[in-house]
Amino acid sequence: MTTRTAITAVYPGTFDPITLGHEDLMRRAAGMFERLVLAVAVGHHKKTLFSLDERLAMAQEVAAPLGNVEVIAFDGLLRDFVRAHSGRVVVRGLRTGGDFEYEFQMAGMNRKLMPEVETIFLTPGEKHQYTSSTFVREIATLGGEVAEFVSAGVLARLNGRTAK
């Protein structure tokens, strides 16, 4: 894209860890919007491999080359975070039909909670369609190779955390 829409978009997730699929969506969304906020969820409903501070550091590292991406932690309702950061769009990624069902329901609920905000869905490039943080964590924990799914910095942290 050659021009960005003068809108703030929010891309929320746990990012445990941030994958090349997440990076792909982040780069593409950053190209569409004037400002993109990567909202790293505290993840109180999930047991994360990495602490919030570690996830923020990894996300900031991969977002650094993009001048219009801010990485910010959030807790609570997405609605409150989006409004606090003047968001007008929520960006969500879709990989499979299963993702679609969940995300479609979430978008509908978010529309009820914040009707002034639109949700857009992006699909990752073909190379990253099946990449998920859950799979990456599991493969790494079991001693498998995950270099093709994460950046070098994330890989180093994963190897440090999961080395047996």
TrEMBL record:
Residues recorded as binding substrate, renumbered to this chain, are T14, K46, L78, R92
Known InterPro entries for this protein? Cyt_trans-like, PPAT, Rossmann-like_a/b/a_fold
Query: What is the enzyme's class at the highest EC level?
Result: transferase
Among CDD domains, the record links this protein to: PPAT (cd02163)
UniProt site positions, description: Transition state stabilizer: H22
Entry keywords, A to Z: ATP-binding, Coenzyme A biosynthesis, Cytoplasm, Magnesium, Nucleotide-binding, Nucleotidyltransferase, Transferase
Q: Which cofactor does it need?
A: Mg(2+)
Task: Enumerate the residues binding ATP.
Answer: T14, F15, H22, G93, L94, R95, E103, H128, Q129, Y130, T131, S132, S133, T134
Q: Pathway it belongs to? A: Cofactor biosynthesis; coenzyme A biosynthesis; CoA from (R)-pantothenate: step 4/5
Question: Which chemical reaction does it catalyze?
Answer: (R)-4'-phosphopantetheine + ATP + H(+) = 3'-dephospho-CoA + diphosphate
Cell compartments where the protein resides: Cytoplasm
What is the E.C. number? 2.7.7.3
Give all residue intervals belonging to the Cytidyltransferase-like domain.
10-138
The source's superkingdom equals Bacteria
A Gene Ontology molecular-function term? Answer: pantetheine-phosphate adenylyltransferase activity
Looking at the Swiss-Prot or TrEMBL record, what is one Pfam family this protein matches? Answer: CTP_transf_like
PANTHER family linked: PHOSPHOPANTETHEINE ADENYLYLTRANSFERASE
Quote the subunit structure annotation: Homohexamer.
Family according to the record: Belongs to the bacterial CoaD family.
Q: What's its job?
A: Reversibly transfers an adenylyl group from ATP to 4'-phosphopantetheine, yielding dephospho-CoA (dPCoA) and pyrophosphate.
What's the protein name? Phosphopantetheine adenylyltransferase
